[in-house]
UniProtKB/TrEMBL annotation:
GO terms for biological process: ribosome disassembly. The lineage of its organism: Bacteria, Pseudomonadati, Planctomycetota, Planctomycetia, Planctomycetia incertae sedis. This is Elongation factor G. The chain holds residues 1 to 536 of 683 of the full protein. Coiled coil: none annotated. It comes from the Bacteria.
Amino acid sequence: MVELSALRNIGIVAHIDAGKTTVSERLLYFSGVEARFGEVHEGSTVLDWMPEERRRGITITAAATCLPWRDHLLNLIDTPGHVDFTVEVERCLRVLDGAVLVLSAIGGVQAQSEAVWRQARRFGVPTITLVNQCDRPGADYLVAVADLEARLEVEALPVHYPLGEGPDLRGVVDLLDLTAWVYDAQGRESRIELPPEVADEAGVLHAELVERLAEMDEAVLDDLAADRRPDRATLVAAVRRATLAGELQPVLCGAALRNIGMQRLLDAVVEFLPGPDDREPPRAEFLSDGSPHLVPPDPLADVCALVFKVQSLDGGPPLLFVRVYAGIIERGARLWIPRLATHLPVEALYRLHADSTHEVYAAGPGEIVALPDTVGATTGDTLCGTAPGLVLESQTFSEPVLTAIVEPEREIDRAVLADSLARLGREDPTLRVLVDAETGQYQVSGMGELHLEVVENRLREQFGIKARFGVPSVAYREAVLTSARGRAEVEREAGARRLKGLLEIELAPDPTSGRLTIDWAPGVELAAHLRESVEA
Ligand code: GDP
């Protein structure tokens, strides 16, 4: 079992093209290199793995992939980036302890990164930011940092500075101790003294960093008062405390494609992001009497775990990905599923790695493991040690916002269409299927255009039905009154962020009343500076 303080359950959130896939692959690669290095040179793996059994059919696209890093175990949890899949994102955010927001040094904060980031904040998930693609011509790290502060209204704290600009990028400066890391083509890193060409800028940023941390951390302040230069460990502890408290957002830089800064990112995950013991315990309810209960990460308590993803395999039963909150799940045990009022035998427990699967015999609080499902469990189910057990707080789902009329292309498919839509609706709590009493037509409501497109594709590919989707209508509309200045700003913002399926704002200013009509998509909030400019 893994110590709570050595666990990091993290997700990577990003807009498309920021480099989420490249960063994830590099993290898996470099942690693997490290693990193999440990094996060969020290005679042991970084972590004490149980005997392993390989299984085919599972890849790094898994819902959660494990990577060992410097005596820690990181679980990289896949978070879908698109807000149409708000529920998918929320399922994942629930089991995350921390997140890495990946931005591009060229594009900065985009609407999509902003939406997912705001969700992470709603779930209280502390975040660090990587400004990726610092090797691209025209990349400007400090502009990206300023953009982050302006768009996300956070206190961004640069803890890195790029060594070299654009295509000349060759490493990163650690602003905590003013050393630099340089990389060869394979990404092997070496630490060097601060090169003179960045000494001035890095010196100024370091001084600012120390000053800002002294305002919120006594140990740093004490050092300054005693005329001592705070050492790296003191600064790391200060950044960590402020990050966990949501007061600061540490910002790193790098270029995943060129293997620059990836080991630094892994270190930052371990140094600045919380372990399960740093988070508030989740809320649950005893089924026996409905009384509320917090679930602290106690290994001696009854098992309490949450299924956050079901993954089908080619052949064999699907895998349930679960996060354990309390107790220890052991191979051979029987877990109670309150929703199904049935027992699930734990036939095997797996940790998934980039290129292999390890079987483990037990998993304790904070851990993420996969187990075969033989009873029909689903996302959101609580797994308990004993009946009647407790259930983790259920999720509330937002109302669907786009509705389209769906008709089969061939009349003969009507019954199959009804059945298929009903099946999809059972799987996905944000999809609503209604039959119009007068016309007999099917009305399908979802979270956005992309969501409806996915339904259309699945009907065709999975159920063999060609269906016609009518023009979707928006289900949520709000009229706001704004000042002339506010209106100009809302219009500009809406124009800039009008992205397919992400944010549909129809602005129809009424010249007499000054009212604007805004059609909202889910998961989208107006930025605070816009909210302020909207008077009523
Ligand atoms: P995702 O959509 O966020 O998963 O982004 P990808 O990882 O697929 O990257 C999008 C594109 O940016 C791909 O063509 C990558 O090769 C490229 N890319 C990713 N990271 C970097 C980087 O650090 N530097 C440069 N120059 N290109 C990058």
